[in-house]
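TA notes, week 10

Several of you asked for a full example with nothing omitted. So below is the full record: C-alpha coordinates for the whole chain, then the designed sequence directly under it. When grading your own attempts, check the secondary structure regions first.
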Protein backbone atom coordinates (compact mmCIF):
# COMPACT_ATOMS: atom_id res chain seq x y z
CA UNK A 1 0.00 0.00 0.00
CA UNK A 2 1.82 3.08 -1.25
CA UNK A 3 -0.45 5.84 -0.12
CA UNK A 4 1.27 9.18 0.14
CA UNK A 5 -0.30 12.18 1.76
CA UNK A 6 0.81 15.76 2.21
CA UNK A 7 2.16 16.47 5.67
CA UNK A 8 3.62 19.95 5.26
CA UNK A 9 3.79 22.42 2.40
CA UNK A 10 5.12 25.95 1.94
CA UNK A 11 3.60 26.66 -1.47
CA UNK A 12 0.68 28.66 -0.03
CA UNK A 13 -2.18 26.69 -1.60
CA UNK A 14 -3.90 25.98 1.73
CA UNK A 15 -6.12 28.76 3.12
CA UNK A 16 -4.95 30.30 6.37
CA UNK A 17 -7.32 30.57 9.33
CA UNK A 18 -9.07 33.91 9.73
CA UNK A 19 -7.89 35.64 12.93
CA UNK A 20 -10.53 36.45 15.52
CA UNK A 21 -13.06 33.95 14.24
CA UNK A 22 -12.67 31.09 16.70
CA UNK A 23 -13.90 31.61 20.25
CA UNK A 24 -12.52 29.74 23.18
CA UNK A 25 -15.06 27.33 24.66
CA UNK A 26 -16.32 28.27 28.15
CA UNK A 27 -14.58 26.62 31.05
CA UNK A 28 -16.45 23.65 32.47
CA UNK A 29 -18.70 24.73 35.28
CA UNK A 30 -18.36 28.40 34.43
CA UNK A 31 -21.14 28.90 31.92
CA UNK A 32 -22.33 32.40 31.13
CA UNK A 33 -24.85 33.42 33.77
CA UNK A 34 -27.21 36.38 33.40
CA UNK A 35 -26.29 39.65 35.08
CA UNK A 36 -29.65 40.18 36.77
CA UNK A 37 -28.57 41.06 40.30
CA UNK A 38 -29.26 37.59 41.72
CA UNK A 39 -26.40 35.95 43.58
CA UNK A 40 -26.03 32.32 42.56
CA UNK A 41 -24.42 29.86 44.96
CA UNK A 42 -23.34 26.44 43.75
CA UNK A 43 -20.97 23.59 44.38
CA UNK A 44 -18.31 21.97 42.20
CA UNK A 45 -16.32 18.82 42.66
CA UNK A 46 -12.64 19.31 42.12
CA UNK A 47 -9.67 17.02 42.25
CA UNK A 48 -8.85 18.08 45.81
CA UNK A 49 -12.45 18.06 47.09
CA UNK A 50 -15.55 20.26 46.97
CA UNK A 51 -15.62 24.00 46.27
CA UNK A 52 -18.49 26.45 46.87
CA UNK A 53 -18.90 28.83 43.91
CA UNK A 54 -20.54 32.28 44.19
CA UNK A 55 -21.57 34.08 40.96
CA UNK A 56 -23.26 37.44 40.51
CA UNK A 57 -21.30 39.65 42.88
CA UNK A 58 -20.20 43.02 41.54
CA UNK A 59 -16.42 43.30 41.09
CA UNK A 60 -16.27 46.11 43.66
CA UNK A 61 -17.75 43.84 46.36
CA UNK A 62 -15.89 40.66 45.49
CA UNK A 63 -12.88 41.04 47.80
CA UNK A 64 -14.83 42.32 50.83
CA UNK A 65 -17.51 39.63 50.50
CA UNK A 66 -14.78 37.04 50.09
CA UNK A 67 -13.07 38.13 53.30
CA UNK A 68 -16.33 38.10 55.25
CA UNK A 69 -17.38 34.69 53.93
CA UNK A 70 -13.99 33.10 54.51
CA UNK A 71 -14.06 34.38 58.07
CA UNK A 72 -17.62 33.24 58.79
CA UNK A 73 -17.11 29.81 57.19
CA UNK A 74 -13.66 29.33 58.68
CA UNK A 75 -12.16 28.26 55.38
CA UNK A 76 -9.88 29.38 52.60
CA UNK A 77 -10.84 30.59 49.19
CA UNK A 78 -10.15 32.96 46.35
CA UNK A 79 -11.80 35.49 44.06
CA UNK A 80 -10.81 35.10 40.43
CA UNK A 81 -12.51 35.83 37.15
CA UNK A 82 -15.48 37.52 38.83
CA UNK A 83 -16.28 34.33 40.76
CA UNK A 84 -15.80 33.72 44.46
CA UNK A 85 -14.57 30.22 45.39
CA UNK A 86 -14.62 28.83 48.93
CA UNK A 87 -13.04 25.54 49.94
CA UNK A 88 -15.67 23.05 51.10
CA UNK A 89 -19.46 22.86 50.87
CA UNK A 90 -20.77 26.05 52.52
CA UNK A 91 -23.81 26.76 50.33
CA UNK A 92 -26.27 27.10 53.22
CA UNK A 93 -24.05 29.46 55.21
CA UNK A 94 -23.24 31.60 52.14
CA UNK A 95 -26.91 31.85 51.14
CA UNK A 96 -27.88 32.83 54.70
CA UNK A 97 -25.13 35.49 54.74
CA UNK A 98 -26.52 37.24 51.66
CA UNK A 99 -30.18 36.81 52.68
CA UNK A 100 -29.51 38.64 55.95
CA UNK A 101 -28.27 41.54 53.81
CA UNK A 102 -31.59 41.51 51.94
CA UNK A 103 -30.19 40.22 48.65
CA UNK A 104 -31.76 37.67 46.32
CA UNK A 105 -29.97 34.32 46.35
CA UNK A 106 -30.46 31.22 44.20
CA UNK A 107 -28.85 27.83 44.65
CA UNK A 108 -27.57 26.40 41.37
CA UNK A 109 -26.52 22.89 40.52
CA UNK A 110 -27.22 19.79 42.55
Amino acid sequence: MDERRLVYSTDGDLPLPVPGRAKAPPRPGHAQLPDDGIIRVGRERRRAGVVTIVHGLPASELTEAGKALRRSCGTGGTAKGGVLELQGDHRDRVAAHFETQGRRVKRIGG
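The longest strand covers residues 39-46. Use that as a sanity check on your answer.
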